[in-house]
Amino acid sequence: xxxxxxxARFKTPLSKILTEYLKMHPMNQLDLAEYLNIGExxxxxWKNGEEVLTDAQELKRIAELLNVEPELLGVVSxxxxxxxxEQIDKALAHVWTLVANARNYEARVAGEKLVKDLRAxxxxxxxxxxxxxxxxxxVTGYVTSLNTHTTEIHKAIAHFExxxxxxxxxxxxxxxxxxxxxHGDMLRREGDTxxxxxxxxxxxxxxxxxxxxxxxxxxxxxxxxxxxxxxxDGFERALAEAERLVGEIDAEQSSTNGxxxxxxxxxxxxxxxGTLGQMQKALEYLDEAATELPPTMRWKIxxxxxxxxxxxxxxxxxxxxxxxxxxxxxxxxxxxxxxxxRIYGVQRYLERLSRDVGKxxxxxxxxxxxxxxxxxxxxxx
Length: 381
Prior knowledge:
Elements: E1 3-4, H1 13-24, H2 29-36, H3 40-48, E2 51-52, H4 56-65, H5 85-100, H6 104-121, H7 127-146, H8 154-170, H9 173-190, H10 193-205, H11 212-228, H12 232-246, H13 262-275, H14 279-292, H15 297-313, H16 317-334, H17 337-369
Antiparallel strand pairs: 1-2
Helix pairs in contact: 1-3, 2-3, 5-6, 5-7, 6-7, 7-8, 7-9, 8-9, 9-10, 9-11, 10-11, 11-12, 11-13, 12-13, 13-14, 13-15, 14-15, 15-16, 15-17, 16-17
């Protein structure tokens, strides 16, 4: 427990580190407190030297989250203090909360730290610890996919491969289904659509004991892959099944931690119809998705990006372009490289369109001016 120094205000190693971290990163004290999973008042007292933290495990946790050497806070880095199951569950819930709030860089650091701690702690086949390690790979792989460029997507895939390996050891269909699903979605993102569908169909067909949330999530992402392959019938069948299954899940117990729900199915419909050039239908689904998804920054960024892409591809260049700019700013601020790449796609699309329009315009001008030669160009027709 922290030992209080009620009146003294002095710079402890922790207060110096916290002060410097706030100077170097675009966040306020509340943001940092949420990232460290402590109260803002506690952070303020630590930062001002009003309270001295002496708990070695807590100091080590903070050092790793802030990416500083534990020795700077007076902790020997080689000392490993085992985590209880309750502490692990609390840490996992905290990472998912960071994801929901689009604190993607912080979530990734926290997830990788928990993976490292659990690997050091597991020395034998302990079912409960291995389940939690697999779940930690799940969230860490997911957030890595958000703030990693497509060229580095192997970093996310590595987590899903580890997750699948653990799931096989434990004979846990739900974990294996999730591992196959996200591995497949990463392959789809890389452009390997056929291999992606192989993984996603394996998630659907080879994990019969997976819970309904995992199965519905796999089918939803399979529908996304079918769109990429332009299998429209397959897409609509998959999304219809995903929409049916979502009514059977318990949102509080979902193995997908909110990544599969009615709102995500509606967003998938909207995004996909936008890709297929059906703008009005896409926007209607995106509007409905906005009423179903929680009002968190994660979903705000996703919906805004999907809407921007849909509008631009539907010919609404002014509105879509303005939304794309706002989306890009949010993506950069919150470390969502995945959605940012979609905005880059909008930019490339507009550049190609501009070149094509410019060429057509030039050809028309040449046709108008060239054949007439010295003739006077008519002003009316």
